[in-house]
UniProtKB/TrEMBL annotation:
<protein>
    <submittedName>
        <fullName>GntR family transcriptional regulator</fullName>
    </submittedName>
</protein>
<dbReference type="InterPro" id="IPR008920">
    <property type="entry name" value="TF_FadR/GntR_C"/>
</dbReference>
<dbReference type="InterPro" id="IPR036390">
    <property type="entry name" value="WH_DNA-bd_sf"/>
</dbReference>
<dbReference type="InterPro" id="IPR000524">
    <property type="entry name" value="Tscrpt_reg_HTH_GntR"/>
</dbReference>
<keyword id="KW-0804">Transcription</keyword>
<dbReference type="Pfam" id="PF07729">
    <property type="entry name" value="FCD"/>
</dbReference>
<dbReference type="Pfam" id="PF00392">
    <property type="entry name" value="GntR"/>
</dbReference>
<keyword id="KW-0805">Transcription regulation</keyword>
<dbReference type="InterPro" id="IPR036388">
    <property type="entry name" value="WH-like_DNA-bd_sf"/>
</dbReference>
<keyword id="KW-0238">DNA-binding</keyword>
<feature type="domain" description="HTH gntR-type">
    <location>
        <begin position="18"/>
        <end position="85"/>
    </location>
</feature>
<dbReference type="InterPro" id="IPR011711">
    <property type="entry name" value="GntR_C"/>
</dbReference>
Length: 232
């Protein structure tokens, strides 16, 4: 195909539909992981589509995706229902993310350059500013940009891809809306940047793992408070 040729209209529609389906899946996934959609809740196509301002088609496709992930199940003649999950499921998700992230962090610490460290310092300042103003969207974006820059420094493209997909299960905006988490994230990033400047690989790994341990504890605590499962 000529490089200057425009994509076929049907292909463009398919791409937009796939993107919209991914966005709906992300919102439903976050709602499930944060406890907003509790296990046993039926996800109605028409109600969900109306709430998200989309048609039924991307909702249906999103539910198919979530069914493949084991987050919802289809009950014949009744519809999709949110699947049950446990503290162990939460622990497993964060263990996987931390395992990948610490491997990336160790590689980044060995390869990183001062200009990249300076950029991480700047991005930490942006995160701190966003936390100060309480801008949830800005906090989520600053956190994403910091970790993207850090992960790129490792040169482990495939591992970073796996981490990105594992991170889909984090309800990012729940964390971003928590001022205590925001302050802890800023402190963590500053300690991480200092360890990178000191070329202290063990400390870089420790700070990286610490952020995932903290996130797991906060999410489990939130779900306990919501009564998602019996405490104790």
């Amino acid at each position: 195909m000529n490089a200057s040729a425009k994509p076929l209209p049907g292909l463009e529609r398919a791409r937009r539909r796939e993107q919209l389906s991914d966005e709906v899946a992300a919102q439903l996934r976050a709602a499930i992981m944060s406890g907003s959609l509790r296990p046993g809740t039926f996800v109605r196509l028409d109600e969900t589509a109306a709430a998200l301002g989309v048609s039924i088609t991307p909702v249906r496709e999103a539910l198919r995706t979530l069914r493949g992930e084991g987050m919802v199940q289809l009950e014949p003649h009744r519809g999709h229902v949110v699947s049950a999950f446990t503290r162990d499921d939460i622990a497993d998700i964060f263990w996987l993310q931390a395992t990948i992230a610490t491997e990336i962090a160790a590689n980044a610490a060995r390869r990183i350059t001062e200009p990249v460290i300076a950029e991480l310092d700047r991005l930490t300042d942006e995160l701190a500013d966003a936390v100060t103003t309480g801008d949830v969207e800005a906090i989520a974006l600053a956190e994403f940009l910091f970790h993207r820059e850090f992960n790129r420094a490792a040169g482990r493209t495939k591992l970073a891809w796996f981490l990105l997909h594992a991170a889909r299960y984090l309800p990012v905006r729940i964390y971003a809306a928590d001022p205590e988490w925001g302050a802890a994230a800023v402190a963590n990033h500053r300690a991480l940047v200092a360890a990178l400047r000191d070329n202290d690989i063990d400390e870089v790994v420790r700070q990286t793992r610490g952020q995932f341990d903290d996130a797991a504890e906060r999410l489990t605590g939130r779900l306990d408070e919501l009564g998602l499962w019996p405490s104790g």
